[in-house]
Amino acid sequence: MLKKLTLVLFVAISIFGIRAQKVFMTGDSHVNSKIYPHKVEEVLRSRHPDIDFGWWAKNGICFYSYKFNPEYYDSIFAFRPDILIVHLGTNGAYDTNFTRASFRQELNAFYDVLLDSLPEVKVVFVTPFTNKRRKYKKKGSWRINYKNREVSDEIVAFVNNHPNTYVIDNNSEAGMKFLKTKGLIRRDNVHLTEAGYEVLGEEVGEDILTIDPLWTSQEN
Taking the mean position of all CA atoms in its chain, how far away is CA 184? Predict the structure, then answer.
């Protein structure tokens, strides 16, 4: 009888010692669409209904924005996520002064500050999907902005050299889909329609669910 009681107590302690994963998403205007993070949350909850999900975003930002505006970290640090989803890079690829070396430095600086306050956090980077830009700022013909691929390559290389980081290479997986599929991207060739953000959220959420190390049980 004593053995049975001990076993029951052990199981109860084990169950109540496990807490829900805290998942936070941050990014630029794509995340700020609200549709995108809500869809990601919906997909994740389909498999992990007990997750604690939150998000924060700001239009026009990239990794370098956090250096000059450290308050942008506040919502992340306050939430203290187990898993952080980061969708940044689109605006960096639009910077006329963009270089791979400078982007690499900005990404490293962002991560170093993040890790200093959240040493155990698991970070999932989502690469920027392919879009277009005008040949001459707001004038001229539209052309593919291939710098998005350069940004994506730098993120992939970063993840390959840092533990507890993961990448959803949406740029590679989606290819030209958002540009070539009618009804998915707006006339500015940068932001997606509601349907487009639903597709993006579905794809990113499903990809995140396949990263097994993210979903290991954590104890209080």
Answer: 20
- Give the span between the Cα atoms of 162 and 140, in whole angstroms: 41
Q: Is 192 helix (H, G, I), strand (E, B) or coil?
A: strand
DSSP per-residue letters across 168-190: E-HHHHHTTHHHHSTTSB-TTSS
Q: Output the average pLDDT for the chain.
A: 89
Q: What is the pLDDT of residue 133?
A: 80
Distance CA 201, CA 38 (A): 8
Token couple for 186:
């707006």
Cα–Cα distance for residue pair 148/190, rounded to 1 Å: 11
Q: DSSP label at 30?
A: T
At 2 the pLDDT is 44
Token pair listed for 184: 């998915």
CA 170 to CA 153: how far, in whole Å?
11
The predicted model gives 67-75 an average pLDDT of 96
Long-range Cβ contact pairs of 147-151 (< 8 A, separation 24 or more):
147/93, 147/94, 147/98, 148/89, 148/90, 148/93, 150/93, 150/98, 150/100, 150/103, 151/89, 151/92, 151/93, 151/103, 151/127
Contact 151, 113 (CB under 8 A): no
